[in-house]
Amino acid sequence: MLVHQDEPYNAETPPDALVDRITSLEAFYGRNHAPIPRIDSGSWRLRVDGLVGRPLELSMDDLRRFRERTVVATLQCAGNRRADLIEVRDIPGQVAWGPGAISTASWSGAGLADVLAEAGIRPEAAHIAFEGADESQQADPPQLFGGSVPLAKATSSEVLLAWSMNGQALPPAHGAPLRVIVPGWIGARSVKWLQRISALAEPTDNYFQTEYSLLPPEVDPRTAGPGDGITLGPIAIHCAFLRPCRGARLTAGPTEVSGFAFAGDDRTVARVDVSADRGSTWIHADLDPPANPWTWQHWRATLTLPPGEGELVARAWDSTAAVQTESPATVWNPRGYANNAAAHLHISCSA
């Protein structure tokens, strides 16, 4: 793992571990705003309250009575590839994520829609809020991590209350005993160490709901208010290089390059273009078909590289025909979120 912080633990997956369709538990990225909480699964209970007809308090045994569902889904931190934005202009106080704040797993658990149906959602409810057990000092005063999604997303069949990851019990580092999985949306909405679900008329006022918002370049994040940015939800189309890795020494001539592309929400990647001459000419990469709308897709292409210094560029298109913007400079923002600029990789080739 490429560890950025020990406490709270923040570490990204190394490129070699991202080439597989499913990421191992040991290599799955970790993004935290507080120390990992210690939870006694025996005494743990999940509260379901707010605008519901029947408030619930559920143990793990209660949850396991719901039909188990499984979804293979990619999770991605909103700050993935922030390091490219930091090269444009510094972003103080933020983790300099490379392309590895993303991983894919097979998740199993109860469908959130089934649990909400048991509680009986009232007609005035429009958002579903989640609260974890991890208390962050980043908020003032300190606050439990949380977030919310619209009711329509929360009741979609792919959204889970997961107790299993890659066929094993959910590890404490990834949210045990229970976490939310909201496929296609930023990882911050897949709240870990879940202990409360609330049906609300409006989005939650939790600090991290608006902390994860896209601010205009001119706004100071230290004084930004809730209305100054756009709250982040679905992930924008983007791609990244995995091989060769940054700093690799290459030999001129035919060379295979590869990477991943990801289109959030229920979109898929339609095409990936790769250039060996800084974007003057492009070729279509071979693109793996999507396993489902909720996972990344890997791509590869063979480029003829000349000797000397150069720059490779990759750009992806999604199923709505949205394409990545050309340069990280065009998407720079003061929190470093949602970098969906084309991927650039400096290379050096010997003759």
Automatic annotation (TrEMBL):
Moybdenum cofactor oxidoreductase dimerisation domain sequence ranges: 252-342
Entry keyword annotation includes Cell cycle: no
Domain Oxidoreductase molybdopterin-binding: 33-207
Keywords: Heme, Iron, Metal-binding, Molybdenum, Oxidoreductase
GO biological process: sulfur compound metabolic process
Cofactor list: Mo-molybdopterin
Molecular function via GO: heme binding; molybdenum ion binding; molybdopterin cofactor binding; sulfite oxidase activity
InterPro entries, sorted: Ig_E-set, MoCF_OxRdtse_dimer, Mopterin_OxRdtase_euk, OxRdtase_Mopterin-bd_dom, OxRdtase_Mopterin-bd_sf, OxRdtase_Mopterin_BS
Name of the protein this chain belongs to: Molybdopterin-dependent oxidoreductase
Taxon lineage: Bacteria, Bacillati, Actinomycetota, Actinomycetes, Kitasatosporales
